[in-house]
Request: fold
Amino acid sequence: MLDRLQDFFISLFSPWIPIMGKISPKVKYRLLTACFMADLVLFCIVRYVLLKESYFYNTACGIFLMLMIALLSLDRTLVRKPWRRSVSVAWFGMCIAFTVSDLLVSKKACGLGIVLALVFTGVFFVWQNHSRKDLLWKSFKDSVKITFLLMAAISFLFRPFFEGGRYAGIFTNPNTFGLYLYVIFAVYMSDLDWNVETGKPLKKCLPTYVQLALVIFYLSVSQARTAMLAILAIFILWVVLRVIMGRKQGRYRNFVKALVCFFVVSAACYPLFYAGVRNLPELVGNPILFDEDVLYLSNGEKIEDIGDKVLAESDAFESIQLPEKKLEDNSIWGRLVKSLDGNETLNKISSGRITIYKAYMQRLNWHGHKRVGLMINNKRVSHAHNNWLQFAYTYGVAGMLFYTVITVLSIVRSLYFYMTNRRRNATYAFLIPAICVGFVVATMTECLFLPFEVFPAFAYWFAFGDIFETTIEEKEVAE
Reply:
């Protein structure tokens, strides 16, 4: 089956190889970077350029960009590649479960299984055949850096900071802003790891430290707790891996120097960044305000309750009323729901997530539901604030089980990829586990699964391209 799928990709893309060969490598690289940049801000393109706001337009544009990425990545004859059996079975099993659910229940967010099984794996296959995959990942990283710096320039000049409020950058929601910051942090941390691994001098590394400091600053003023946990997990992961590498190599100098520089530069830049975000918009005098802007206060309140959009849905949500008292249920599931529901402190700290989790748990089935959101006690909730519950609710319990296996494999295989490729692919080796670990932590309390609606989901699914391969091109080298 996998060989037939790869043969399909070969027959689909091979005729384009001579055509792509006529384009200079520099032009292809720039176009590839532009495609990633367009995917990163796809929600803005669809909404403000196409004047649309729907899952269909986002998905159609996203598929087109993925096809362009695949074509621009062609550089030599395509051949079959060995795919890791465990990852392949879980991946395509998950895609089949999603597709079966789509067939059983008509959805607003349909086609995810087909997109992952055909579009994403098609790009994976092309990238695995490329002679310089590190350059392809460099285009991905450069797109994230360029858009981040553009966003920072716009934010510093035109997006005002309100005292006592949470900062959202160019977004309308600080939580959404924070989730994008996790991917940006992963990109810059992969650069930092590259610097440590290769022993680059401090002068050449300084831009990386300054931009990491900017990410930390934005994270602190956004006060996005989920993003804080995700970024903390990435940082701890990096420290642990570098300590392990230091013990094997018998030296810690580059790592300690990088760690000290990270904290010193972040502390030194913080007051400068804070002064800029407070004063520059007033000096420019031309603030950019959106109709959907919501002022989130530091105490957890918000001036206008619009909610977090994962998918634009206009139809009425399925409604559920949660009674204050329930009949006694001594099953394991019943005791779990009861213990969560009775913890009012935890529910308050989690911004009502326990109530949301309980409502979604009571609606789980094997075939899924039409919509992503739910009406809980006459209040509209846009999503489950948890990927596992969201997959179980939208695509059925079977889809959630396959997704759970994929989650475990993404962490295990990405760490193995780093341990075996940290020298040959030093430019992006840490990026793969950083994206995977940060995503898993973030999706414990947020919902990220549609690749063309939110970029963190795109980055996670895209990271599987290197996890699929069984051929490890570099064995551990004795230092």
